[in-house]
């Protein structure tokens, strides 16, 4: 039996990071960093963010998309995506606008977050029409939103039993090629809870890829400042001690059951992006604090862990 976890002020602070991230993404989209026709439904007009923040979010979104596309290129339409701590992410709708079909798309987050997201979806035709089933309807059951191929489910990722139940409700397949996304979510779980979740995913899905984006290299002075700022907001990182150098983050995935894992800090990721992409982004805003951007990039990492030969060659330069 999972322990019953009461909601705390710290949980509310973690939930608030979804709003922060969505506002940052909308700002960058408005400035032309990337195209997203759906982000405006989830957050109203926002104040302009610092150039290093906009550029950092571009690198994050671009890198995630790059590996998502690598995954989809290796699969047929029967694959599935599980988005852990989905927040107000618009990936499902952006994929629907492409030719890259996904058999099932499951999103998990705190119930208060998924309830708000579901409410926004239901009141905006442009969002709703892309998730409606053949009858033009969605089903709301026990606070969750369901349609053919899309499930928005409220749960506590710290409770593995609850996660397993929700995935079953979402029609997850143990045999379908599976992509798991975790952007700034695992770090908020206690190390034992995060390990149990990752170990379960690796054991359940024999053909899968996991993409994790979160903090790294927190042991230096810049990392200490990041942690102090988060603590001041009541948002401690339960998995702080695991936010080490990228190579250690990759090694962690191997110990939890994945066949292969690689990790890079975001400065390495940025340098690996096509030169024309970087040139376009650099032309959008003048960046005075180049050193600050470098520090930010070296304190976030992208980790890709895989199971199954079909995904073994997923790489930064693939």
From TrEMBL:
It holds the Pfam family LCM. One of its GO terms (biological process) is regulation of signal transduction. S-adenosyl-L-methionine binds at residues 60, 85, 156-157, 183. It comes from the Eukaryota. Transmembrane segments: none annotated. SUPFAM superfamilies: S-adenosyl-L-methionine-dependent methyltransferases. The keyword S-adenosyl-L-methionine applies. Keywords: Methyltransferase, S-adenosyl-L-methionine, Transferase. One of its GO terms (cellular component) is cytosol. GO terms for molecular function: protein C-terminal leucine carboxyl O-methyltransferase activity. Its EC number is 2.1.1.233. It is an enzyme of class 2 (transferase). It catalyses: [phosphatase 2A protein]-C-terminal L-leucine + S-adenosyl-L-methionine = [phosphatase 2A protein]-C-terminal L-leucine methyl ester + S-adenosyl-L-homocysteine. Belongs to the methyltransferase superfamily. LCMT family. Methylates the carboxyl group of the C-terminal leucine residue of protein phosphatase 2A catalytic subunits to form alpha-leucine ester residues. This is Leucine carboxyl methyltransferase 1. It comes from Diatraea saccharalis.
């Amino acid at each position: 039996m999972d322990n019953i976890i009461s909601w705390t002020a710290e949980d509310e602070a973690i939930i608030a990071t979804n709003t922060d991230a969505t506002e940052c993404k909308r700002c960058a989209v408005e400035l032309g960093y990337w195209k997203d026709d759906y982000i405006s439904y989830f957050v109203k007009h926002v104040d302009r963010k610092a150039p290093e923040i906009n550029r950092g979010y571009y690198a994050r979104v671009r890198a995630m998309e790059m590996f998502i596309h690598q995954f989809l290129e290796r699969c047929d339409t029967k694959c599935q995506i599980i988005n852990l701590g989905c927040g107000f992410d618009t990936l499902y709708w952006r994929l629907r606008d492409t030719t890259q079909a996904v058999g099932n798309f499951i999103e998990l987050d705190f119930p208060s977050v998924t309830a708000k997201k579901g409410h926004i979806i239901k009141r905006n035709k442009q969002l709703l029409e892309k998730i409606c089933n053949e009858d033009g309807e969605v089903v709301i059951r026990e606070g969750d939103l369901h349609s053919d191929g899309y499930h928005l489910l409220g749960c506590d990722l710290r409770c593995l039993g609850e996660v397993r139940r929700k995935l079953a409700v979402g029609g997850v397949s143990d045999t379908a090629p599976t992509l798991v996304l975790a952007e700034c979510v695992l770090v908020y779980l206690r190390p034992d809870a995060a390990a149990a979740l990752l170990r379960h995913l690796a054991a359940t899905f024999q053909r899968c890829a996991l993409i994790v984006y979160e903090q790294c290299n927190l042991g230096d002075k810049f990392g200490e400042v990041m942690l102090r700022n988060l603590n001041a907001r009541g948002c401690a990182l339960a998995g702080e001690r695991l936010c080490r150098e990228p190579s250690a983050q990759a090694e962690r995935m191997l110990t939890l059951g994945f066949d292969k894992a690689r990790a890079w800090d975001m400065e390495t990721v940025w340098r690996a992006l096509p030169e024309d992409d970087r040139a376009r982004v650099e032309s959008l805003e003048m960046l005075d604090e180049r050193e600050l951007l470098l520090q930010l990039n070296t304190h976030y990492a992208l980790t890709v862990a895989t199971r199954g030969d079909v995904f073994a060659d997923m790489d930064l330069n693939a």
